């Protein structure tokens, strides 16, 4: 998924969590698993003074029910701006 397509990443994550919830719950109960998170890699918008990317309630709810945290990692734009 492209760093500049945050909405696409969110859609894919909701689909994945919805379809794989049983497997994720099983993994989360395994010995030694202390935490897990979803990391969204997002392109930093160079023209923005402040950048806000919001996670929809459906994703937050799904992740919470599965015991997952959510992270947002900002990366520089490919042209280096």
Question: What characteristics describe this protein?
Answer:
single chain; 81 residues; alpha+beta; two-stranded parallel sheet; 38% helix; elongated
Tell me what you see in this structure:
The protein has 81 residues and is of the alpha+beta class. It has one domain. Helix content is 38%, strand content 17%. The protein has helices at residues 6-19, 21-28, 57-65, and strands at 37-43, 69-75. It has a two-stranded parallel sheet with strand order 1-2. α3 links the parallel β1 (37-43) and β2.
Tell me roughly what share of residues is in helical segments.
25-40%
Q: Given the structure, what is the number of helices?
A: 3
How far the N terminus sits from the C terminus, by CA atoms, comes to 21 Å
Largest sheet: 2 strands, parallel
Order of helices and strands: HHEHE
| Strand order across the largest sheet | 1-2
Query: Shape from CA axes?
Result: elongated
The strand count comes to: 2
Rg calc = 15 Å
The secondary structure category is alpha+beta
